[in-house]
Structure formats: C-alpha cells, structure tokens
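Lay summary. Proteins are chains of building blocks that fold into shapes, and those shapes determine what they do. In this project we predict the shape from the chain. Here is one chain we studied, written as its sequence of building blocks.
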Amino acid sequence: MARLADYFVLVGYEPDKRGSGDGQGQILQRFPEKDWEDNPFPQGIELFCQPSGWQLFTERNPPTFFVAVLTDISSERHYCACFTFWEAVDNAQSQSHSRNGEEEEAAASLVQPAQLFAPKSLVLVSRLDHAEVFRNSLGLIYTIYVDGLSASLENVIGNLLTCTIPITGGAQRTISLGAGDRQVIQTPINDSLPVSNCSVALLFRQLGITNVLCLFCAALTEHKILFLSSSYQRLTDACRALLALMFPLKYSFTYVPILPAQLLEVLSTPTPFIIGVSSVFQSETQELLDVVIADLDGGTVTIPECIHISLLPEPLLHQTREALSLVLDPELEVADLAFPPSTISASSLKMQDKEIRAVFLRLFAQLLQGYRWCLHIIRIHPEPVIRFHKAAFLGQRGLVEDDFLTKVLEGMAFAGFVTERGAPYRAVDLFDELVASEVKRMRAEEGSKQKILRHIKELAEQLYKNENPYPAVTMHKVQKPTEGCHLRLHQRPFPRLDEGTVQWIIDQATAKLQTAPPAVKVEKKCMVPLGPPIAAIMERNGSAQANSARRLEVVRNCISYVFENKMLEAKKLLPAVLRAMKGRAARHCLTQELNLHVQQNRAMLDHQQFDFVVRMMNCCLQDCTAMDEHGIAAALLPLVTAFCRKLSPGITQFAYSCVQEHVVWTNTQFWEAMFYCDVQNHIRALYLESSEENHLAEEGTEGPREEKSALEIAAEQRRLWPTMSREKQQELIQKEESTVFSQAIHYANRMSYLLLPLDTSKNRLLRSSGLGDVESVSNSFVTNSIAGSMADSYDTESGFEDAESSDVANYVVRFINRFVDKVCTESGVTNEHLKGLHVMIPDIVQMHIETLDAVHRESKRLPPIQKPKLLRPSLLVGEECVMEGLRVCLMPDGREEAAGGNTGGPPLLPAEGAIFLTTYRIVFKGTPTDPLVGEQVVIRSFPIASLTKEKRISTQGQVEQFVQEGLQLRSCTFQLLRIAFDEEVASESAEVFRKHLHKLRYPQHVHGTFAFTVGQSPKQALQPKAKEKNPSLRTLSKNLVKNAKRTIGRQYVTRKKYTPPSWEQRSGQHLQEDEDEDEISVSEEMDRSTLTPSTTIKPSDKMTMSHLVERACCRDYQRMGLGTLSNSLTRSKNEPFRISTVNRMYAICRSYPGLLIVPQSIQDNTIQRISRCYRQNRFPVVCWRHSRTKAVLLRSGGLHGKGVVGLFKSQNAPTAGPSQTDSTSLEQEKYLQAVINSMPHYADASGRNTLSGFTSAHMSSADSSDKRQPKLGSLMKQVMGGKDDGPGTLSRGGKWGSIRASGRMSNYVLNMEIGSRLAGKDPLSAQHNGAPSEASFLRQHRASLYIIGDKSQLKGVKPDPLQHWEVVPIEVFDVRQVKASFKKLMKACVPGHPSADPSLRYLRALEESEWLSQIHKILQISVLMVELLDTGSSVLVSLEDGWDITTQVVSLVQLLSDPYYRTMEGFRLLVEKEWLSFGHRFSQRGAQTLAGQSSGFAPIFLQFLDCVHQIHLQFPMEFEFTQYYLKFLSYHYVSNRFRTFLLDSDYERIELGVLYEEKGERKSQQVYKSIWDYIERLNKKTPIFFNYMYAPEDGEVLRPYSNISNLKVWDYYTQETLSEGPSYDWELVQEQPEQVEEAERQDSSAPQTKRKIIWPCYDNRSRVEPDAISKLLEELHNLEVELGQAPERWKDMWDKVKASQRTDTRQEASRMGSSCLLMASSLAPHRRSLGVYLQESGVGSTLNLSLDSDTSSTSTPSSGKQGVRKSTGNLYSQFQMSESENRSYEGSLYKKGAFMKPWKPRWFVLDKTKHQLRYYDNRTDTECKGVIDLVEVESITPGTPTMGAPKTVEEKAFFDLKTTKRVYNFCAQDVHLAQQWIDRIQSCLLDA
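And here is the predicted shape, written in a compact code that computers can read:
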C-alpha cells in the first residue's frame, strides 16, 4: 500500500524584494509540517507552480491545473499536481506581504494599476501518478473554498493525506474525502508497464509519425530533446508519452517535463535530457546548438545541423512506419478502393494509444530478440552479477555496422535494462513473454498487414487491460464549482488552515496503520524464459553470410595438409585460404579446425607448420575489428597459447608472439567480454558438478539431459537461495569468489602474452590504430626471423600514450592493472585478493619478459625458413662466376605479363632468388613468391656488355613492411632487372656488386671483354672465397673489396686508376641520364689517328695479300664479277673496274678494307689525293653491281666543305690558278666520270645520257619508261622533301611499296598493271601509287649517277644540265637522334613502372620515341635507290662519315636488290663486307670499353636488323633465314660473347690479331670466337635458323612498303622467356627440359597428362609448341635413333622431302589438266610474297602452303583432295617399316662375323631411301640385327674365301665392303647373285 498524497502545499505570490516587476512564489502552508521519514519534502516546489514566473495580472484568469515532475537525488520522481487560481491584491495587501518593512519605498514606488490579481496554487505532492484523482481532489478543495460548501477544508485535506491505495495488482479502491464525494481508483495490474492514458496517441496527433520516430531515436541514442508548448499539461503528457514509448528501456537522464523560467540555463547542460519549456521562451532556445526541438503546437521537430540522429536499422524502420500508419490512419489502406468499406474508423483515443504502444513493443522485441543469449552471469550469490556481451550480440545479429543499435547498447538506458531484466529469476511481464515466445510469430507474419494488425490489437488489449483492469462500474461523484465563479468580484482570499486539525487527522491514521498487519505483496517470481537463440532467428532471416561449402573445404584441406606435413600442397592452397578468410564462416571454420588439432595434442609444430598456422591466424585476425563481434579472436585466444615450436632445448616459442599485431588485443572491452565468458563457464561448471553428484543415480534411467545454460542454473540457484543454511550460503559465495579470482590471475598472464612484444628491448607500444595496409598483413609471413625485425618498425608514439614513461613493461602492467581493477570490483572479488593481484602482476610481466628474451635470442639465430635455397644458374663453357649470388627479390616492372596483368595467370613476379655476376652476364635465378607457381623457376638475364643504365631504387618490400634498397639495371637487349636486396645482404656487398659490374661493363681495353677473356680464369677479386666453405657475408664482402683494390692497382698501374662512379655523381660523366645526350657532337666520331697514314702495318706483303683475298669483300667482288686480284695486277683493259691494293696497309683509310674496287682508269696515286676531300678519307668505292643493268652502288664518307663547293660550283670552268682545291675537285670529277663511263649503256649512248640513249636493248617501249618516270620523280621528291616542307615531310611521304617487278623490262607493263591494281588505280594513270606526277621535277633525261648527300652539306648547289650526275640532297637523322630515340623505345617496350593504362602508355611512348619514323626513313631511302639502280642509274651514298646510316642504306639496297644476300651465306657476307670491313664502329657505338662510356650506346646495327625484320615480315618467302636469326644477331652483336662484332675496323682487328686467327687455333671446341662459325654449327644440328617458307623467285627485287602504318614493332623488343632467360645462348637453354622431365617422373602421384599450359613471357613458345615441320623432323630423328640407324642431317632430309613434293606436284598438275596450269601461271607474282596460294579448281578449294617451286609455271600447288592425300602419302611412305616398302633389293648372303667369329647366313635388305644396308636373322625377322650406312662405304671389291667360309660356293661369289670403320666380308650363293649385289650397291652409292 502507498499514500495517495505525501504533502499538501499552499503557495502564494510574494513581490520581489529587489523591486523588479516579477514577484516570486512563497510557501504559505504545508501539511504535514514535518517530513515523512521515507519521503523528504522536495525543494523548489514554488518555482514549478508558476513555471513562467510569478506575475500579477490585471484580470482574473480561470483556474488551471497541470502536473509537474520533480526528480530527487535518489532519482525518485515526485509528481506535483498544481491547481492555480487568482486572488485580488490591493496595494496595502501587497505591502503587508513584505512584513519585514525592508525596502518599502521600492515597493511603494511601483506604479500600481487600479486592481491586480496574484496567483495562488494548491499543490499535491505524490510519488504516484494519478493525475485525474489529483485534479478531482484539488478541484474539490477549490470548490469548497469558492462555493463555500459546508465541508471543512482541514478535514478534506487530512483525509487526502491519509488515504492509502495499493500500488499495483489491478485493485480497485473507492475513496471519499469527507465532502460527500466519491472516487474510484484503479491500479495497474503490473507496475512495470507504464501508464499512458491517451498521451501517446496525442503526441502522434500533434507531431506525426516521422517526427515522433525521430524523437524516439534521438531519445534512445542519448540526444537532448526539448518540447515547446504553450500548455503545461501537454508538455507533461508529451514527455510521459515519449517515456512510455521507450519501454522496456527506462530513461535515466535529466527528465523535466515542465522547466521553470528561472532554471532555463539547465538547457545548456552537457548531458542528454528530455525537458519541456513553455513556448513563451522559444526565443531563448534559439541559440541551443545541439538540442532537438519539438514544437507541439506547431507540429514540427527541428534538428540542428551539427546533430546526426541514427535511425532504426532498415527493414525495422519501414515496418514500424507501416504499422503506425495502419493504426493511426486506417483509411489510408482503402483510400484508393473503388468501393471503400463503410465502417472503417480508427479506434477510440485510449485504444489507439495502446495500439501505438503495441507497435513499439513489437519493435523492441525485434531489436532485442535473443538478448538473453548474450548475457554473462559472473556471480550468482549473494546477488546475481550480470554483464551483456554487446559485440557478440551485434555480430550475431549482423548489425555491427548499424549506428543505432550500437549506440542504444552503449547507452545508460540499456545498462539499466540489463541490470533490471538480466536477473534469471524474477517476475515476468509482457515484454519478456513477447521476446521469448512471439518473435517467431512476428517473423512469420512479416509480410501480411492483416496478421500484423491482429497481433497489434492483441497486444493493445493487454496493455489496455493492464491500465483499466475493471470496467468502470461506480461513477465518480466530485462536486465542481459553479460556472464562472472565478469572476466573482468580492471573492474572499483562501483561508488560513488550522495545522493542528490536519496534523491530528494524520497522526491518527498513522497510528491505525501501525497496528494494522503489513500487506505482503506476493511476487510471482519465476525463471525468465530465454527465447530462441539468435542463430536460429538469423538463419531464418537468411542474412547470415552464405559462404560456399567449397571454401570451407579448402580451409579444412589446407589445415590438414599443414598438419600432415604436405607443405607443397598447403602452399598451393594457402592463397585461396587467405582470400577465403574475408568470409566469417571461413574464419570460424579455421578456429574450429585448429582447435581440433590442439585437442589431439598436436600443439608442437615444426618451423614450416608453425609459419603456416601463424600466417593463417594473422590473416584471420586482420579483418577482426577491435570489438571482435564474431568471436574470432576469442576463439583463437586459447589456440595462440597452445601452438608452439621448439627453438632449442628448453626454449619454446608460442604462436602468440607472432600474432600480437592486431588491434583487438589492445581493446579492454574485448578482454572483459572474454573474461566474463570464461568466468561464466567456470561458475556453470561449479554448479553442474555439485548437481551432477546428486543426479548420478537418476541419470542411468533418464538418458541424456539437455545441457543447462548458465542462466538456467543461476535461476535454479536463486530459487534455492532463501532455503539454504547460512554456512552453505557462505561456502558458495567463497567458491564463486575464488573462481573469479583464479580467472583474473589467468587473464593477467594471457594479457601479458599478447601485449609484450617479442623484442621487449624496443620501446614499442601497441598500436591503437589498425594496421595500415590490409593486404600487407595477409601476405606477411610472420616468421621467427621477422617477428623481431617487425618490432623495429613500430613507431613508439602510437598506441596508448602515457606521459610518465613509455617503457613496455610498465605500460603492460598498467594496462593489466586497470583491467583487473574493473572486472574484480564488478564481480565482487575481496579487497585482500585484489591487493594480492596487484602485487602479482608486475612479477608475471617480468617473468614473461625473461622467457621472451630467450625466445627472441633463439629466434634471431634461426635460419630464415621461408627463403628458398639459391638456385645456381648454368654457365657457358668458359663463363665464370665473378660474384656469388646475392639474395634479392626480383620486382615486377611495367611489363604486365609477368605480373599476371590482363594476360591472367598467377603472377610470376615478384620472385625470390639471387643475382649472379659472371664474366659474361648478369643472371637472376629464383622462384616466384606466389605459391601457385612456386615450383617454376624464373630466370632473367642479360650480357653485362649490354647494360645501358643502372640506377638505385628503393622498393617497398613484398614480405616485410620495410623499405629495401635495390638496383634497376637496364640493358639494350630490352631487358630490365629491378632487384631489391634482401635484408641479409649487407650494403657493402651491394656496393661491391656495383663496382664489379662497372669494371666488367667498361673494361679498359677491348682485351678485357668476355670474348677475349673467355676461358681464362678471371683475375677478378672473388676467387679466394672458394677456400672458406661458408664465410659470413661480412668477411666475404671485406675480402672482395680488398682484392678488388689489389687487382685494380695491379692491372692499371700505368693508367689513371679507374674508380666507378659513386651513386651521387653518377648522372654526369658515367652512365648518362636521358637528358645529357645532346652534348655529343659529330666531332666525337673523328678520331684523328685515322687520318694520319703514318702508322702502317709491317708484316710481309705477301702474307697480307693472301689473307686479304680470303676476306668476305674479295669473295663477294669475285662473285659479282667486279674483278679478281690477278686481273687487277695484269691490268686487262676490258674490265671497267679493278681491285686496288692501294689500302692494303690501311695507309689511305684506316676504316676501309684492304682491297677496294675502283674504276679501271684511276691510278692509285690519284686515289690518295681524292681521299682527302672526304671525311675520314672515305672516298667513293664500289660495293655492289647490278647483275642486269650493270649499274653500280658506291659508298663514301660525306664531303669536306671545300670539296663540295669546288666540285659543284666550278664544274666545267676551272679557275686560272692551279690551286690545290681545284686540282682535287678535277680529279674527283674525273673519278666520278670514270664510274659513269664504266656503265655499258653510257658507252652505247655515245657520251650523253639522254632519253634516246637510254632506250637501248634494256627497254621494250618508250612509253613504259614514261610511265615509270613520274613515279620515280615523286619518289625522289618524297625522300628529299619538298622545298617548303619542313623535315616533317619525310615521315609523311606518299604510299608506295612492294610492286614486285621481276626486274626485266619486258615484264614491266604487266607489273605496272598489277601494281596499280594493287593501289586501286587505273593502269594508264600517270599519278602512280598516289604520288604527285611532277614531270618537271626530274629532268627529262635520267642522270647516270645519283649522289645521295646530306641536305645540310649541299646548300647552294645548283643542278647543271651538262652534268652526268645529279645530287639528291636528303635530310637524315644523326647518331644523337638515334640514341635518344632508342632510349625512349626501351622505356616504351620495357617500362620501369606499371601504369594505369599500359596499352595507351605504350603506344604513346612508342610514338614519342620516333623509332619507327627512323626505320621508315631508312627504308624509304633504300627503296628509292633500289628503284634507281634497277632503272640503270648508279648511286653514290655519301652521308655523314660513311659508317652509320650509309652502311645501313647500302646494306639494305643490296639486300633488296640481290637475292643472294637473302640466303644465310649471303647475309653473312653482306654483314662482313659492309659492316665489318667497311668499318662500322661497333666498339664506339656499343660503348664497349671505358673510352666509349661517355658517348653511350647507339644501336645503328640494330636499326639495320630491324629494317631487315620489316622486309622479312612483308616477304616471308624470300629469305632463307628466320626472324630468330635476326634476333640472334641483335642479341649477340652487343653481348660480347663472340669477337666478330668487337673493334671498329679491320685495321684494329689485324692490329689485335683477331682477324686472321688460324682455324686450328681454337683452344677448346666449345669456345667459338666467331658468331658465324657458331651459327653454322648450330644450323647443322637444328633447323632453328632455317625458314621453311623459303621459295625465292629468280632475280627478285623487293620493294617493301615503308609507311609507318605498314611497320610493326619487332617482337624482339617486347618478348621474353622467364623460364630459361634469353634463348640466344643455345647451350644454356638446351639443358633445361630434361630436368623438368625428371621432376615429373618423380611425382608419380600426379596424373600424367599431355596437356601443356603456355604462359606468355614464361614459356618459350617456339620450343614448347614447335612448328609442324620442326616437330616432324624431330620425331624422325628420334625414330631413327630408336631404330638404331645413324640419323640423317635435317637439311638432307628437308631437301629430299622437297624434291619428292616437287615430283608429286608435277604429276598432279599433269593429271589435273591444263586449266590448272593456266591459273597458276597467271597468278600475280606479288601474291606469293605472303607464301600462301589461294586457288579454286573443279575438285574443290584448298588452301595450301607451297614448300618450294622451280619456276612459277610449274609450282602449281597440289590442289584437290585426292592430290593432297597422295602427296602426303608419299611424304610418309618412306618412313614406314612394313615389309613391302623401303626394300630396294633383298636376299640372303653369308657374312663373316667379327674377328674369330664364324660365317653366318643373314637376310640382307638394301634400302636406297635410307641409304643403308640392313641385315636380319632370317626373312621373316622384323628385328634388325645391324645396319651398314652406305655413306661410310669407301669401296667394294671382289673378295677371297677365308677360314670357315661355306665350302660349296665358288670363289668369285665372295666380295668385300670397305667402310671407314671396318671391312665386311660377304659371300653370295653364286657368282651371278654376287655380281647383282655389287651392282646394286654401286648404283646406290652413285645416286647419293
């Protein structure tokens, strides 16, 4: 029972003493006068009676009533019901009020109007909220006073104060205050449910659904809320409604429904509140920045900008809104119906109120469903202590990210909820039932509005019933005042009451109560139902992450592989596992699996297993937030202290030392949750044990009981608690307390494990922030060796900063102490125990630090496991290691293939391995870090001589988080090595590596290059190292440096000591950066010594001469019929040219060969004078003659300035004085005239080369030449560039290309037509191939000699109509441009860094490099010259010094014009003649020595090879060699492996003795000094250089297209093979495949499959998938070897096959009839350039590859299906071993065995095809007993019978077969047979 009212107070107005207009309230009387003991009188009532302030009014207002709420210090609420009426005040009275007489003047001075009214309030103070009863009671008192009823006021008030009513239980009490009144009071059934009357419904009416929801969320998430209204009652109602909506949570912050004016500053309090303020003060609330303001009168809610209110999580928000609109606006549902039901109407206001509350009750049930499963009960006795595991709840609900719920769970209201409702044994209310049993129903009904509404109505019924348990039977009877009584004029003031009377009534009532028996409230306690676990609810929800079973399978497999020690398998699966760890299920799976292995006592692991387990744990933890909402860290916590590995006897490292890296370990909340969870389990176990002892007897019968949860056990214990004896209670309390205490010790240990770093000497604190880069963690191999070094990289600043000290131990001790304090006080550990703990913790930490020190020390010693062993590269014969492998990581560069870019596939780079420096190459060999390709080997290497740039880089390490230093080495073989040195490589070693690299790259002299030093032991530093088996790196590097110094000193004593550039000054003088190329001018090429012919060679002339004749030049001169040495000595006059020996001592020109072709008429002494006019003395010499037109190609250096002017300005009128200049220019003129005279058509034309003279025997008709001329003119115009066009025209020249004229003029018209048809032009149009026809441009007669010169040198030269030669000035690029272009090309093809859009960047860089424009230019000039030579004009190329672009152009012209140079032999000859003999400066251009270092690398020869490659692409059938041959040359001309391309001229080569090395001089068969010998040998072994499509046409002149659009980037620049390195060192590459096969054989478990996967950039495609012909040849070879026959050379085999193909073709053609032949002959020749015939015939169309053809008429491909079948049949027939075939002749012969063996009859088979004699045991035998190869047979002679020969046979039947190996003796049955055998064998030998 409780008092209805505690106090009755009368409050009146008192004027303000300070004289301001407002007065203040004053308590006039209060009853009872002394406070109740259980309920002190609340302070400040007078403020709340007039919240807007006490003011006087000029008229009477009607009485008002409202209820204010005051909260006392113990947060009890007091309801103050204020009834206010107005009384008149006259002046005198207002003064009598200030009885003390102070400041009377002030009071008097107030200007008083006629009559004023002052408020007076009657106040009831109660702890019960029965507003209506209070209103009636105070109204009754007022009525008695106003209407002057007979009842005594004291009596009524006394009765009111002594009236008691039950608090709850749904009782109904009728009370009467003794004035003839009657009231019925109903108490709610359950007082835990709030009573709201209609307030909630009113609130929704005032503000609307969205606004109220917003306020609701704001209140729950602890924002400040302010209600404004002009009605106080509404403020109170609104606040009450908001609290009612929050049920079952209780609002625990400031709650003031009506805030008085004097207390407005409360609004700026920092804590949350719900406050109501009269709207009079709206202006004052404007400056509140963080308050949500709800204006009840205006219906608005204002949220300031700085506030973000988290709303309900999504499906709930929507569902709540829908449900609310169903309740509040039922018409909405049917508003659109055509026939709306007539009877829809909302419920009554009271009912609506309950329905709204039902919606919110449902909402909370859904929000908090399953909350009881996340309660941890820490203590049961004496009082239950309960904690809520927030993280687990959010994690299981899948709402971790949800702001709203997180804030609610962190809020005070929820803390109160846990305390109040957590208890397992208590009374249960509506909410508990809803959460426990209705959640499933709510899930099921989610979609259906009808069902939802039904449920809401049911709940509303219950809520209504709770407030109004009885239908109101009795009527209230309360007297009310008469209408308008407050307006009476002469109303007497409210009387003063008699305190005595009231007090007496109260005392009597109190006495009566004390004698009455106490009313015992029976609480119905029971066990609170748990409800379904969250997991069950969530699964139905389906929002649980679906993680495919396959992934979990992978995780399980990987773990079982690790524990079964199948490391390779595990390694393959690891990346998949690490990826799967992103999913929650996979992480749970991991913890479960690991847990199983711990239970099986597999906690001690070996190093590799330990590594794997740690990696998986780290990956698992990295995605955990600090909250650990999924319990992953919690599940791993016991495991990290279980898994360990032995470092050395007695020292064990546990996994925890490698997983400290995660933010979760520094989160106190995580540790608390873990601690409580463990404590709960232990306490549960404590009670389970005791109960199990009792239950053992019963259990046998029962069968298994369901596991009891801790809460259920706790409920049971609480129920029994009152029944236990005192001792028993004490015992239980003690047991529980010690359980908690022991757990606290255990956790202090655990925390020290995870918080103390392995290396405690480092002052590193734990990071409070997460790890920077998620990826870096998942890839981090945290191993023993790294765990230490990882500690270094932490910044000590981050983490929990503590001013006093950053010492790790102190920090950890403090952290643990804070934790222990918190949990122990919460869980009621005694103070003694707590003190004990504080003493223990520092010792625990100290002990742990000591063990860690030992572990750290040992772990440092461990070899770093995960580093693969260094693989040694295979070396060439004579190649030696200069520097042992330095462990490095090969980083990916900008090429995407190896990094698995768009080409897909696992990334091959980065790879771990070592870098080796040999005398020849820099080699990286290692294995990819990606385990999916871990078995592959990655090799990347290039010759040292090709290094063009080296720069230092620093890279972010792949594995560890620190920056490694590295190198980037770029090579002109288009290779880039980006290496990062491993941390074990000392920086000195890296420096030594660089020094050696420099020394090898730039030797002092060419003798130092690999081609010369090969085979000699290198005098380099690193030899001593072989003696010490395994020296430490430090001593090794010291030795290196020492020896390096010693050798440097020894080798170069006389010269300036060479010190390689230091990193800093690198850019200037040594390895040039990109920019400083430009300062090298042309003068750099002018070596003065070449101009002084004083130092000549001294050997005997005869020797030199014979050598010179052997040279390539001479061989080629003789081939072209330009004269032989003998004829030049006898000076026969009929030859126009002779071979001059004037330069045999290299006296005239150092850079020319010894023998030169000059016109017959020119004397040697003239030559010497002429040579001075030309740069480098390179005067014009003939290098090639057209076999048909007899036009010649000459080359020379550019003219010196004077010579040019002299030659062209004063052509026919020499000046008077015979000056030096003039005489030389005359001689030059004479020389050129002599060249012109040598041309046959010049002689015919009798002196003038006019057009009429030109149409001699070589031309069939004049008009054909007319047609041709404009074309040539336009071509010249393109090459020269028009006058007004800038240099840009060159690249834009018109399109003209391979019109494949056969070179004979008779064919020309036909060719023209084809050409124009190709170009889509009319054959008669003069504008041929799209070039402008400017007949005027080229004079009408064709010059006999065109001089191609540099535009810049030929300025001011006017063409002279009398001259026979014409100068064509063209613009060429110089060497500097080539260098710059090449640099850009390298960067484009092998970029150093990856880019966002690789293909775009590549194309842009390619264009910027202008490499293709240069190729275009060279080809264009060459084609022009081919054209000129073909029309019978000679050409002299006189550009720059005559050794760069001149050489390129001259070589290309010969290649295009002469098919001989397109064979292998011819190409070799061309290179030897034009490049080597004519002195292209290979050493200078390739920067092969120290001297050339500053000038850098200029790829002139490479450019030429690229041009050849372009031509090869356009005419694949015209070259005998393949593209590989060109790549091979490109690689080796810079590699310095061979001596062929060393030095700058023949002169230098002779000087060094390189040129004429004797053939027998080779030291070892393997070391080849000449690349040509090597190619020859290789070509014999394998057809790698041979082009199977080679089918040349006689005298074919090639005219390739040179437009940039027709040029392709050479794949030599872009492709690489990582499996074996560059494939151009054939020996190195050939070793690999066998090893691979062995490896495959060992692993027999793997399924054997024929399937191969080829990766771009890893596999060498041509080797893995050879072309069909190579494959067939290889198979044949293998078969022959298996059959025991001597294998044939591939070339012979090929030729045979071609021959048989040819005969087939002929037969085929005759069978097909003539139509086919006609078609074949009419095929346009250019079509053949693609090597494919397209042909239709009656039999059916077939696409066939012609292998060879003699002439175009007979080379009809076999078309038609039978034909194809026949020819292929023939192709293979020779290789079948059936009886019938391949036996040209067979029979039985006797054969004498080897020495001392008898004669035996054998069946012999003579096989012409295979060219062998085979013998078998007998005729039916298929097993061949032996083979005599007929190649080896030297002679066949009649023999004599020897001992043991068959007796019956005549003597003449014997014959002997002599081979190179032995003599075979045979004998036939008779003489005739013997003769037949001899004839057959003889004819067979002759055939061969």
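What the prediction tells us: The longest strand covers residues 77-89.
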